[in-house]
Amino acid sequence: MTSTAIAIACTGVSVRFGDFVALSNVGLDVATGQTLALIGPNGAGKTTLLNALSGRLALSGGRVQLQGRDITAEPIHRRARLGLGRSFQIINIFPEMTVLENLRLGAQPMVFGLQPFWRGVQAWPGLEARAREVAALVGLDDALDMPAAVLSHGRQRAVELGLALMSDPPVLLLDEPLAGVGQAEIQATTALIERVRQNRTVLLVEHNMDVVMRVADEVVVMMAGEILTRGTPEQVRADARVRRAYLGGARTQPAQEAAHA
Ligand SMILES: Nc1ncnc2c1ncn2[C@@H]1O[C@H](COP(=O)(O)OP(=O)(O)OP(=O)(O)O)[C@@H](O)[C@H]1O
Fold first, then answer.
1. Is residue 38 lining ligand 1, measured as CB closer than 6 Å?
2. Is 67 in the pocket of ligand 1 (CB under 6 A)?
3. Closest Cα to atom 10, ligand 1: which residue?
4. By CB neighbour count within 10 A (0-12 exposed, 13-18 middle, 19+ buried), where does 188 fall?
5. What is the mean pLDDT of residues 13-28?
6. Collapsing DSSP states into helix, strand and coil, what is residue 203?
7. Does domain 1-82+201-261 have CATH number 3.40.50.300?
8. Quick check: CB of 41 below 6 Å from ligand 1?
9. What is the pTM of this model?
10. What is the CATH number of domain 84-168?
11. What does the pLDDT look like over 26-54, one tens digit per residue?
12. Is 47 in the pocket of ligand 1 (CB under 6 A)?
């Protein structure tokens, strides 16, 4: 496999918060076009890994590569400009602004550095058309002028996803896109994730196993800041160590058992 066949990768990544080791020597690669799900008990380090990849956290050690290019030293906005998109576990939109206004803000990474900052994102010529295109993709074309606050939780999730899609990133990190979405909207939000993953590489953190099994090509299991195992959804589901990791809880299970099992 050439380096460009890997969309995003990290090697030897460690992250510490004071004395606490949140990630320990994590290596991961996601093939171009693949949807890889990252699962593991609470506190395993999944969000921390997304933060390490997207540049929100300083690494204590290790390297990150995007499409064959070392981006370890690049700040968040540069990574975004290079094609790395991100959505958040906690919905990160402006509730009082309309769907269209929110989506326009998602174009920021495309505009950043291309024109003087005082002209702002509103002056970008393709903005309106792109916002409408994305709204249609995420099923919000009927809600463009509504304030985000009046939408259901599932549709607010769609706005959040839409923001990340405005720059059409080839590589997308999704942090629990179903968090807080009620049972009635799980199907629609899952269908949206399936649509969004077409023609791009996705690294998805998700607790809903049915959804993981449905959308992921492969699954990586994390525990206590390390990678426990990786395999197809079926392989991971059948893995006794994975069941033990979940039953044992986040940081109560010794990492050594997993590593040497
Ligand atoms: N900024 C921080 N300062 C101190 N500790 C942190 C910080 N961020 C995360 N942690 C700790 O690092 C560990 C990993 O957290 P992380 O959020 O990455 O876990 P997670 O696998 O995403 O869990 P969840 O499934 O609950 O979202 C946890 O013990 C958490 O308390």
1. no
2. no
3. 22
4. middle
5. 97
6. strand
7. yes
8. no
9. 0.87
10. 3.40.50.300
11. 999 999 999 999 999 999 999 999 999 99
12. yes
